[in-house]
Amino acid sequence: MKFYLRDAIITLGLALFFFLIFNTSLQASVVQDVSMQPTLIAGQRIIIVKIYYYFSDPKRGDIIIVHPPIDLEREFVKRLVGLPGDTIEIKEHQVYVNNVPLNEPYLKNQPAYTYGPFTVPENNYFLLGDNRNNSTDSHFNWTVTRDEIVGKACWRIWPPDKWGSPGNYPLDDQLDDHTSSSTILSTR
Questions:
Q1: What is the pLDDT confidence band of residue 1, given thresholds at 50, 70 and 90?
Q2: Is the pLDDT of residue 157 over 70?
Q3: How many Å apart are CA 177 and CA 96, to the nearest integer?
Q4: Taking Cα atoms as reference points, which of 47, 26, 39, 105 lies closest to residue 78?
Q5: Which of 79-88, 89-98, 151-160, 161-170 has the lowest mean pLDDT?
Q6: Which residues contact 47 (CB under 8 A, 6 or more apart)?
Q7: What's the domain range around 177?
């Protein structure tokens, strides 16, 4: 009897330990609206890694979950487009970051509005939905701080035919490539 009690206490302790670890580092979320279509659709379930940005800085193109300053009770899922210090401008159906037009193959449609130029404040991030014309995002004059970022969307888990990557897209590469080619041209 003494061994069963000890084994039960150890088993419960381990279960509690793993529950706390998973609960503080991962979160399952349901996409609630259409702002990220076609990448994410309403009703899809995604896994958020809440500790992701403890080990890495947010990158342009990441799909992230945030508590927006316009409604701290809700969580929004958006694509990170601008980092602190970036200049964002939206004109002629194109998003520009630091005067570089972004190639965004994941968009439902190009933005039908103009915005900026706007310089992202220090410790703030500029977010846009992939469904640009139907998204409450940073083009409505709000940004998020690092503290308002819940985590990075890392997996789609439901429905089964959509299992896999949620559609993070490396926008940093486009800006790096543009900077490199500008540097090469200017040294000749």
A1: low
A2: yes
A3: 14
A4: 39
A5: 161-170
A6: 26, 27, 28, 29, 153, 154, 155, 157
A7: 2-183
In-domain check, residue 188: no
Length of the chain: 188
Write out the E strands in 35-182.
45-49, 63-66, 76-82, 87-91, 94-97, 100-101, 115-119, 124-128, 144-145, 149-158
Residue 153 — left, alpha, or beta (φ > 0 → left; ψ -120 to 50 → alpha)?
beta
Which of 114, 91, 102 minimizes the C-alpha distance to 61?
Answer: 102
Residue 71 lies in a domain: yes
- pLDDT tier at 15, thresholds 50, 70, 90: confident
What integer pLDDT is reported at residue 186 of this predicted model? 37
More confident residue, 17 or 182: 17
pLDDT of residue 185: 37
Q: How many domains does the chain have?
A: 1
Q: Positive or negative CA dihedral for 23, 28, 33, 36?
A: positive
Give the CB-side neighbour count of residue 174, counting CA atoms within 13 A.
19
User: Active-site residues: which are they?
Assistant: 35, 78
Question: What CATH number has the domain bearing residue 100?
Answer: 2.10.109.10
pLDDT at 178 over 70: no
Position of tokens 């965004």?
A: 104
